Structures are given as structure tokens and as C-alpha cells.
Write a sequence for this structure.
């Protein structure tokens, strides 16, 4: 399953809302989609699993939605520490990742 | 505190081999499925292999099948990746990651560079 993320880069200011999308080449249902935050030199961090669930410790400004082939990660109000690359991942079949969306400071 | 620490990366010639290790602490290793995921420099993440909690079932990406072997030692809380017949395109940071489906904890990775 190929995942296509858009946009490639999102230039925003702290306090703004970020909307990232992930489209799958075939349905992954509504529970097999995750989102990761990745900063250079650090371990990737799981921020959303099962499409809309947040792991313990992830702030509620992060939210996920979608089903089938179209999914969205929303960061309601960007904090300085949120600027990073975000990857979607499906695990309905052999795991695959999207190519990433870079959220950069405008 | 959950910790995963990878080691064993380095520079190797095409056709060579390496054994990567992931030493874990802070959780009950033997009950978790474990994974290896890699990132080619400047590119995205690619799932490489997974192994069940007891080590009795392994699965691999097509790009590494037949060349890579994932294994674990539950007594030593450790995960391994034997990588053989290395190719230039295997150059990447290799991460170990905990859990089935959407891994919830990852290490910081170890760099494997394949170059003549």
C-alpha cells in the first residue's frame, strides 16, 4: 500500500493550525493508520495510532481523523517544539510509510 | 523509563555483512513484538523486519528478504539484525522499534554505510 502525504512542506508560524493529509492507494480501514513526529538526530515519536488515538503524554493539540484512504493529522495551535517532519504509516498490510511532511517555521 | 539503544553500525564494503543489536530496558521485552525500520539519508522511513514476542515468526520487506535476518534473545532483552550481502542502497540509519503495528517507542538509530 502506497501512502502519499501532502503538502511536502508546510510553512507556518507558532500558534497557527497545521493540517497534514495522507492518502492511501487502497483502503486501510479506520484503525490501521498512525502518525509519527521525527526531528533530526532523534528517535521518531508516535503521536497518533489507530487513526485518532493519542499515546500517553502526547498533547491534545494533536488530533487524527479519516478512514478508508484519506487521513488527516491536525495540530490545532503549533508550539515551537512541533516543528518537525511528520510521517503517516499504515499497518493494515505489510507496513509502509508516507514520504513525510516537513512542518517548518515561517 | 523505556530505552532502546542500537549498536553495530559502521562502514562496510558492498557484499559485506554486519550484525546490528538493540539493547532494551525499562519494559518487559519478552511480551512485545519488535521491529527494525530504516531511513536512507534524506529520505523517508522504510519498515525492514518484524519478529513476534517469542521469536517464532519473522516477516521481512521484499527489499531485504533473503539477505537480512531478525532475531531476539529474550533472556538478554535484546534484538538483532544480521545483514548480509550488503548493497549501496542499504546505506541508512537503522532503528529498532517496539510493538505490533504502530511501534510506540524507538531507539535513536545506528548508521550503516555501504561504500567501496
Amino acid at each position: 500500500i502506497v501512502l502519499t502525504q501532502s503538502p511536502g512542506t508546510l510553512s507556518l508560524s507558532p500558534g497557527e493550525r497545521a493540517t497534514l493529509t495522507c492518502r492511501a492507494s487502497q483502503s486501510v480501514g479506520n484503525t490501521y493508520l498512525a502518525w509519527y513526529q521525527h526531528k533530526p538526530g532523534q528517535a521518531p515519536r508516535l503521536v497518533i495510532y489507530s487513526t485518532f488515538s493519542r499515546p500517553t503524554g502526547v498533547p491534545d493539540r494533536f488530533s487524527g481523523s479519516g478512514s478508508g484512504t484519506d487521513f488527516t493529522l491536525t495540530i490545532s495551535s503549533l508550539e515551537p517544539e512541533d516543528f518537525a517532519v511528520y510521517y503517516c504509516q499504515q499497518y493494515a498490510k505489510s507496513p509502509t510509510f508516507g514520504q513525510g511532511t516537513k512542518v517548518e517555521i515561517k | 523509563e523505556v530505552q532502546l539503544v542500537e549498536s553495530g553500525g559502521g562502514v562496510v564494503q558492498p557484499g559485506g555483512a554486519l550484525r546490528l543489536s538493540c539493547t532494551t530496558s525499562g519494559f518487559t521485552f519478552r511480551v512485545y513484538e519488535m521491529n527494525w525500520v530504516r531511513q536512507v539519508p534524506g529520505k523517508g522511513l522504510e519498515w525492514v523486519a518484524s519478529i513476534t514476542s517469542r521469536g517464532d515468526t519473522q516477516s521481512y520487506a521484499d527489499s531485504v528478504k533473503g539477505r537480512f535476518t531478525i532475531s531476539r534473545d529474550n533472556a538478554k532483552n535484546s534484538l538483532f539484525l544480521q545483514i548480509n550481502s550488503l548493497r549501496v542502497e542499504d546505506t541508512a540509519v537503522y532503528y529498532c522499534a517496539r510493538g505490533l503495528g504502530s511501534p510506540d517507542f524507538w531507539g535513536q538509530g545506528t548508521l550503516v554505510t555501504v561504500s567501496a
